[in-house]
Amino acid sequence: MLTDDGCRLWTEVGGQGPPLVFCHGGPGLWDMAGDLATMFAGDYRTIRWDQRGCGRSARRGPYTLDRAVEDLDAVLTGHAEEKATLLGHSWGAHLALEYTLRHPGRVRRLVYVAGTGIDDEDTWKPAFRERVRGVPGGWDRAAVVRQWTAEFPDRERAAAHAEAMATPWFDINRECNTTLNAEVARRLRETDVAALCRELRVPVLIIDGSEDLRPRWAVDSLAAALPDVRRVIFDGASHLPWVEDPDGFSGAVLGDPRR
């Protein structure tokens, strides 16, 4: 599909039912929700997309939070005639939250998975950096697979999970990653997002893995600010709880009485 400024975005639609739109992590990565789309295809019309500059979408900016929200709005306008459920993972959880705060009338429910909350990142990032100390860095596939392997506490299956995440592989958009991370950090420093959340009347389901390398207490203030929120924490799971506990994850999403 094309955005209003002519950027080509890759999308894939499947399943039956009310619309469910996935917002992938990153920034600068690509949609990895194939398993999720299959998981929910019997209950939802699943809508996947690669964000601007990422994966199978056109590699062009601008890379701003406002533009990312506008692109998500274009996806909803093009593929969801009714209110949609948004399922955002990691950075995508923040993007989905931002969209919901700006366009609450377009969102039926927000599923906020493995996000990092709404506090200044300086409150949680030092703890995260300490937990990943010694994990080799890098942007090529081999280096990234090593980094992603560290995300999974089940060491026997960690490498296979990381390889699956990296297949298919697309080069990470480093400009997108750096620019959007800086903008999100600035917004959380300069804006009282908690006050905006207190006014939100959209149901929110927060899903965490207890072993996520990003400390889960970083999400506490978000959960406290939301008027209509449920929170599910999967013991033993980490940053991709649907990979580590697919039955539990689908049960949490589909079993939410507000869906």
TrEMBL record:
<dbReference type="InterPro" id="IPR000073">
    <property type="entry name" value="AB_hydrolase_1"/>
</dbReference>
<dbReference type="InterPro" id="IPR002410">
    <property type="entry name" value="Peptidase_S33"/>
</dbReference>
<comment type="similarity">
    <text>Belongs to the peptidase S33 family.</text>
</comment>
<dbReference type="GO" id="GO:0006508">
    <property type="term" value="P:proteolysis"/>
</dbReference>
<protein>
    <recommendedName>
        <fullName>AB hydrolase-1 domain-containing protein</fullName>
    </recommendedName>
</protein>
<feature type="domain" description="AB hydrolase-1">
    <location>
        <begin position="18"/>
        <end position="245"/>
    </location>
</feature>
<keyword id="KW-0378">Hydrolase</keyword>
<dbReference type="Pfam" id="PF00561">
    <property type="entry name" value="Abhydrolase_1"/>
</dbReference>
<dbReference type="InterPro" id="IPR029058">
    <property type="entry name" value="AB_hydrolase_fold"/>
</dbReference>
<dbReference type="GO" id="GO:0016020">
    <property type="term" value="C:membrane"/>
</dbReference>
<dbReference type="InterPro" id="IPR050266">
    <property type="entry name" value="AB_hydrolase_sf"/>
</dbReference>
<dbReference type="GO" id="GO:0004177">
    <property type="term" value="F:aminopeptidase activity"/>
</dbReference>
